[in-house]
């Protein structure tokens, strides 16, 4: 074709795609629809109902669809490479194959990641083949880079797919952002509903690509199946309790979601029977709504029995038959566990990260839990606050690390206040408070480094009233870097905050049948 004819056909193509619906016809690899007749069928059905363009994966399917229609085709090739996370049209030869198969526009991954061919080289290869290019971007910077390399369209296709949990909703904000760079923005990725497609168009997309919601029968079927399951067989509701040395939380939890919560002060002069009665009282309005209960408690739990490791944290007398008494009281099957172990499990289940973790709560006492190779360790494991260190006074570490010590130390220095106020004073730079808080942070940092040496977890997750107090983690990190990098753990604040124990014990209540 002559230059002028090419320019004309590009203008016609760009005008055709303006304000258009493009349907992506990509069967699930190896699925029942993964064959040319189905792909062609979906493509022709979509075109017959008003789609203007198609997005088609693989040279084979592009050729098959091209033989059946003259409609614009965005072609791409997906590959799973060993040495690069880039999947969409990674090679220059892929561009050639798609052009020869009849694609009008060639889409490729334009993310800033390890890749076999650069964005510049791919954009040039598409131009050399006389086709238009679509850069599948994950963010604003990808698009800016791709446009500088001369691409014709930028798409939001890769947003949410370059790390971290996959979002559910489309990235409409990215459409808006890319419009600052060019009018040639294609909205693509997780557009499942009519409203989402309209939102993308309103945000300024020149055209909108819809895939799974139209052409992946397996996905759409699963959406409906899951929605119906919620009605026909809803997840069980659990009464979840987290009984600590200072406060007691009781919640109704369903599928990891906390539906309702009450918080009471733990009566430190009370008894196990009294604490259970207070919980039953607080939860009386929920009777009939839950079918199982999980009770996480400060102290050691073995074979359903409960006892104190440190009576200063909570004075549980002797060995209390917690599981038996709670089952009688609540009238449903009950699972019991240590509070910090339950929180470790809650944190493990809260994110898709399956790496080993140690959880530590710095609260009335200092408790902990270990999840190793997907399994929660039980017994007294994780009771780091009970370790004695190398001091000669035989005091457990927690006796100089937690809320009660902070309050006692403040009082000794003439400041009769709660730990929360000590933290505020430290933030305001009051020397006495800085000394207390930094001392706690230093001792806790040493403990974290020792745990790293003992277990080498991928992460140490911190919770508890003191652990989550504003500025505490930063101080601990500073102390850790002073100790040295070779033992430095990766510290994270609990994703679930103070609800880690509640969510964890709710899950254990349904899944834990070994005691
Ligand atoms: P429990 O030990 O009952 O599980 P918490 O995790 O709330 O309860 O820990 C209670 C301890 O944490 C108390 O000593 C309390 O004073 C202290 N604490 C609670 N909130 C804060 C805060 N925002 N800043 C500092 N200390 C706090
Ligand atoms: C203590 C110990 C642990 C508990 C931890 C945190 C008792 C009563 N408790 O080390 O079992 O996990 O405190 O408990 O011996 P909390 O009350 O501070 O949340």
Q: How large is the radius of gyration?
A: 30 Å
Q: What's the domain count?
A: 3
The gross shape turns out to be: elongated
Q: Characterize the main sheet.
A: 8 strands, parallel, barrel
Low-confidence stretches: none
**Helix fraction by DSSP (H/I, runs of at least 4):** 25-40%
Mean pLDDT: 96
The name of the CATH superfamily of the largest domain reads Aldolase class I
> What would the CATH topology of the largest domain be?
TIM Barrel
| Total DSSP helices | 18
- The CATH architecture assignment of the largest domain turns out to be Alpha-Beta Barrel
Binned strand content? 15-25%
Broad structural category:
alpha/beta
Instruction: Classify the oligomer.
Output: single chain
The CATH class name of the largest domain reads Alpha Beta
Q: What ligands does this structure carry? A: adenosine-5'-diphosphate, 2-acetamido-2-deoxy-6-O-phosphono-alpha-D-mannopyranose
Give the terminus-to-terminus CA distance.
Answer: 77 Å
Number of separate strands: 20
- Taking strands numbered 1, 2, ... along the chain, how are they ordered across the largest sheet? 1-2-3-4-5-6-7-8
Question: Can you give a write-up of this model?
Answer:
The protein is of the alpha/beta class and 515 residues long. It has 18 helices and 20 strands. It has helices at residues 3-17, 36-48, 59-66, 92-101, 119-128, 140-148, 172-179, 194-202, 212-215, 217-232, 272-282, 322-330, 339-350, 403-412, 419-427, 431-455, 472-483, 500-511, and strands at residues 20-25, 53-57, 73-76, 105-109, 132-136, 153-155, 185-187, 207-210, 237-243, 247-254, 257-265, 292-297, 300-302, 305-307, 334-338, 357-362, 366-372, 375-376, 459-463, 491-493. The protein has an eight-stranded parallel β-barrel with strand order 1-2-3-4-5-6-7-8, surrounded by eight helices. α8 links the parallel β7 and β8 (207-210). α4 runs parallel beside α5 (119-128). It starts with a helix and ends with a helix. The model has no long low-confidence stretch (mean pLDDT 96).
């Amino acid at each position: 074709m002559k230059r002028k004819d090419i320019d004309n056909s590009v203008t016609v193509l760009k005008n055709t795609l303006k304000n258009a619906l493009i349907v992506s016809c990509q069967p699930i690899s190896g699925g029942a629809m993964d064959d040319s007749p189905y792909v062609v069928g979906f493509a022709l059905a979509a075109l017959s109902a008003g789609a203007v363009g198609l997005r088609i994966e693989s040279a084979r399917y592009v050729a098959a669809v091209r033989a059946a229609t003259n409609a614009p085709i965005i072609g791409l090739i997906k590959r799973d490479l060993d040495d690069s996370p880039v999947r969409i049209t990674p090679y220059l030869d892929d561009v050639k194959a798609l052009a020869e198969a009849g694609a009008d526009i060639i889409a490729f991954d334009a993310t800033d990641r390890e890749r076999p061919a650069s964005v510049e080289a791919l954009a040039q290869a598409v131009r050399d083949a006389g086709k238009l290019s679509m850069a599948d971007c994950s963010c604003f910077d990808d698009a800016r880079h791709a446009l500088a390399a001369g691409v014709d369209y930028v798409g939001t296709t890769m947003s949410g797919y370059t790390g971290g949990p996959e979002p559910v909703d489309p990235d409409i904000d990215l459409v808006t952002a890319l419009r600052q760079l060019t009018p040639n923005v294609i909205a693509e990725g997780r557009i499942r509903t009519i409203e989402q497609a309209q939102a993308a168009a309103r945000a300024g997309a020149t055209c909108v690509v819809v895939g799974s919601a139209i052409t992946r029968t397996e996905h759409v079927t699963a959406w409906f199946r899951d929605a119906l399951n919620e009605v026909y067989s809803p997840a069980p509701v659990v009464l979840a309790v987290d009984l600590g040395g200072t406060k007691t939380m009781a919640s109704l939890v369903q599928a990891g979601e906390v539906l309702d919560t009450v918080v009471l002060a733990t009566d430190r002069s009370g008894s196990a029977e009294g604490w259970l009665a207070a919980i039953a009282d607080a939860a009386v309005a929920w009777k009939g709504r839950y079918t199982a209960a999980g009770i996480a408690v400060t102290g050691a739990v073995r074979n359903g029995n409960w006892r104190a490791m440190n009576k200063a944290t909570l004075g549980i007398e002797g060995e209390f038959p917690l599981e038996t008494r709670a089952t009688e009281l609540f009238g449903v099957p009950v699972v019991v566990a240590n509070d910090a172990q339950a929180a470790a499990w809650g944190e493990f289940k809260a994110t898709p990260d399956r790496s080993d973790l140690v959880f530590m709560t710095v609260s009335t006492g200092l408790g902990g839990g270990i999840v190793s190779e997907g399994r929660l360790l039980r017994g007294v494991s994780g009771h780091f606050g009970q370790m004695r260190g190398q001091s000669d006074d035989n005091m457990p570490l927690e006796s100089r690390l937690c809320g009660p010590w902070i309050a006692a130390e403040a009082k000794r220095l003439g400041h009769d206040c709660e730990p929360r106020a000590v933290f505020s004073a430290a933030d305001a730079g009051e020397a006495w408070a800085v000394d207390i808080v930094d001392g706690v942070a230093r001792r806790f940092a040493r403990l974290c480094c020792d745990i790293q040496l003992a277990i080498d977890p991928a992460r140490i997750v911190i919770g508890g009233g003191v652990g989550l107090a504003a500025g505490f983690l930063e101080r601990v990190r500073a102390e850790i870097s002073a100790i040295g990098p070779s033992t430095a753990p990766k510290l994270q604040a609990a994703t679930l905050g103070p609800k880690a124990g509640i969510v964890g014990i709710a899950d254990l209540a349904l899944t834990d049948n070994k005691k």
